[in-house]
Amino acid sequence: MAGELEGRVSIITGGGSGMGRSTALMFAREGAAVAIADVNDEGGEQTAAQIEDLGGNALFVHTDVSSERDAVNAVAETVGAFGRLDSMVTAAGISYANYVEGDDDTDPFLHPEAASILNKPTEFWRKVLDVNLTGAMLCAREAARQMVAEGHGGAIVNFASINAYNPSNLLTDYSVSKAGVVMLTRCFAAEFGPRGIRVNAVAPGPIETPMLARVHRAAGDGAWGNVPLGRTADPDEVAEAVLFLTSDRSSYVTGKTLGVDGGISTV
Amino acid sequence: MAGELEGKVSIITGGGSGMGRSTALMFAHEGAAVAIADVNDEGGEATAAQIEDTGGQSLFVHTDTSSEQDVLNVVAETTKKFGRLDSMVTAAGISYANYVEGDEATDPFINPDAATILNKPTERWQKVIDVNLTGVMLCAREGARQMVAEGHGGTIVNFSSIAAYGPSPGIMDYCVAKVGVIMLTRCFAVEFGPHGIRVNAVAPGPIDTPMTASLQRTGALQQQGGALPLGRMAQPEEVAEAVLFFTSDRSSYVTGKTLGVDGGTNTV
Q: Would an 8 Å CB–CB cutoff place A30 in contact with chain B?
């Protein structure tokens, strides 16, 4: 199946870890030149290096997706390096505004009281919306502007979540931002369809990422007993859906959000 | 890309024409042995012959999917010939109970008055529900029973429609049946998930098939679909690609979902 994205150029936000990294590596294996846009320099550089070690073309661009200037810059740098843009994947996201990786004091799963909307500062809410919703809007919009300017179609894949459908009491801001991504995907599909740009989303369920490990630690291994397939998933299983929605195999699919969640009940 | 379904055995209902045929040919191209289950003998035989002409393995079994006996029979015939069952695709469907291919007098888009629920006999409602909803249930259930008996997982892909989301005068029985398919898909996914059987659906929009020929001719399609962002009808192969995705291991964590393949038609 290799070579499905041969000659294509893709930007993957959040490509420095988790599902974004899996997607970046899979796209590179399929022949795409991949720009990693991440606020995490170490992870982003690492993904880019892994791709180059495999003989692929990659570029890391430091990017805070909630910054309009950074999003504009990531597109400019990518086109500068690779000459065009065909695909945007907006995988960058945060679940909690104040969590510091590895710091138990700021882990909302360990401190549910502090994570309640009743108890957290408005800035926390705003930051989650800025990154997860406005960030997806900025990146998708700048990519579409570039594709339209280049005069060809393309594909945009956003990251929603099962929490777009199922509220979580620790994750109000996150859940609301992800529901917004579902509607943003539909709106952009309607708006960019006539230009040949397809816009879809994935809605991952419990995927084995650093965030999920913390859920397990706080809630125990029974936390995902409601998954019909009875297991959590590898990030590659989400990347496969992103690849499908990016490749010509989904040529008549746009505006859709596909759950990759082991069958957790969503509407 | 060939070989994604190597060693797998699939039954495709409605494989005698349209999207069912495209799916059958694509699955065979990917290495699957394919049983064509259709009430249309001529079309079904033709698909099976096309597969064998290209070196694939195929079988045609006359099947009215609304008949429990026929459904049991097609699963039995398929496993007898190919030794197992890994995948069921329920593409068989009808849009109007009394429409005769090519006969304008029975075409509901040409005679909308006769097609309204106020004027059509209950048997026509019953037939559309029998084929499009009960037929899907029977095929998916028998497919799952066989897979569970064989002790391995598998996949089921059902055919819903954009009509599941947008009510349409004249085909209300079809709309109701297709929205039922979405919930059936979710229920079966929950029920069969622990057996390693994934159940998903596609919801095609305007696809260039015999079923949409009269819609195209009368212009009803334009009134029906509403805004169509991609601005064109699709070829059946574009739906078959989504069915293949749901059947292959590429969608290993996807179950209970209905994916619109509709050019961006407004759905939820």
A: no
Residue B217 contacts by C-beta under 8 Å, 6 or more apart in sequence?
none
Q: Inter-chain contact A240–B263, Cβ cutoff 8 Å?
A: no
Cα(A4)–Cα(A248) distance, rounded to whole angstroms?
Answer: 8
Cβ contact B264:B229 at 8 Å: yes
Q: Return the number of other C-beta atoms located less than 10 Å from residue B74's C-beta.
A: 26
ipTM of the complex: 0.88
Sequence-ordered list of residues with C-beta below 8 angstroms from that of A173, at least 6 positions apart, any chain: A97, A117, A124, A125, A128, A129
Report the residue of chain A nearest B2, measured CA to CA.
A1
Contact predicate B9/B61, CB 8 Å: no
List helix spans (H) across A121-246. Answer: 122-129, 135-150, 172-192, 210-219, 235-246
pTM: 0.92
Q: Is the pLDDT of residue B223 over 60?
A: no
Residues of B in contact with A259 (CB under 8 A): 254, 256-257
DSSP B188-247: HHHHHGGGTEEEEEEEE-SB-SGGGHHHHHHTHHHHHH---TT-S-B-HHHHHHHHHHHH
B226 pLDDT higher than 60: no
A241 and chain B: CB distance < 8 Å anywhere? yes
Cα angle B123-B125-B128, degrees, rounded to a multiple of 5: 105
More confident site: A267 or A189: A189
The H-or-E segment that residue A63 falls in is: none
